[in-house]
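Technical annex, item 7. During the second reporting period the consortium partners agreed on a shared format for inverse folding records so that results from different sites could be compared directly. Each record opens with the tokenized structure and is followed by the designed sequence. A conforming record, contributed by the partner at site C, is shown below for reference.
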């Protein structure tokens, strides 16, 4: 599966490029204008169940496998909204996921995309409406945590392991600002997994790409928007 946010090319042009050497990719129609989904499976195996301006939640059903839910996300940028508004966007996303999980009667859910927040920000780690995504797989495998006598379900966030000098890039987005507090490398693009999908998963199954098809995506150690994007892409491998 390939999920693209703010793709500047039409679906037809993307399919032409993706299938230049051999026909593999199909386009998953979506009413979510900010995201485009391409898949090497038949697109009928991945119908949308819930969509909005910035979210597409799909059921992926492969032969001989349990169905999983895949949520593609592109939340608003810090350039356009306040931190408080970003928390409310996280609450909206968490409620949408919970609604679809209840409808599908399982919680085998993968979230991926541009959250425009770091893993340590309140909208990502917070319970009581947020995504409640934690850095520890062991903690996430407790499944729920009680806050003020109410239970809240975890997500596991493996992107914590990729912050800093472990990779060629210290995150997925670089910003060198003049404020007193500046993180420089940010991990805005993330992969979150419900505990049910974590038992055969390890942090190294997620990678931040610094080249694609032999083309470097970094220039002077920073994302090169002239050849790709100001965000680096993330690849995840998942067994289910």
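Designed sequence (site C submission):
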């Amino acid at each position: 599966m390939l999920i693209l946010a703010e793709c500047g090319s039409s679906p037809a042009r993307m399919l032409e490029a993706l299938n230049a050497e051999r026909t593999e990719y199909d386009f998953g129609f979506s009413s979510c204008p900010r995201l485009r989904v391409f898949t090497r499976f038949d697109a009928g195996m991945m119908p949308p169940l819930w969509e909005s301006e910035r979210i597409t939640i799909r059921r992926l059903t492969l032969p001989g496998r349990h169905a999983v839910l895949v949520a593609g996300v592109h939340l608003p940028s810090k350039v356009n909204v306040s931190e408080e508004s970003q928390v409310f966007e996280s609450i909206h996303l968490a409620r949408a996921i919970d609604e679809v999980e209840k409808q599908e009667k399982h919680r085998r859910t993968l979230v991926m995309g541009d959250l425009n927040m770091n893993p340590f920000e309140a909208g990502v780690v917070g319970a009581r409406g947020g995504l409640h995504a934690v850095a520890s797989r062991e903690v996430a495998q407790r499944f729920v945590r009680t806050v003020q006598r109410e239970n809240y379900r975890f997500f596991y966030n493996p992107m914590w392991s990729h912050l800093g000098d472990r990779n060629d890039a210290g995150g997925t987005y670089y910003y060198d600002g003049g404020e007193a507090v500046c993180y420089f490398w940010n991990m805005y693009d993330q992969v979150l997994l419900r505990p049910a999908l974590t038992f055969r998963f390890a942090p190294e199954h997620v990678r931040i790409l610094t080249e694609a098809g032999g083309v470097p995506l970094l220039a002077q150690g920073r994302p090169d928007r002239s050849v790709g994007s100001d965000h680096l892409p993330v690849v995840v491998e998942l067994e289910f």
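The two ends are 15 Å apart (CA to CA). The domain at 2-236 is CATH 3.60.10 (Deoxyribonuclease I; Chain A). All partners now use this format for quarterly exchanges.
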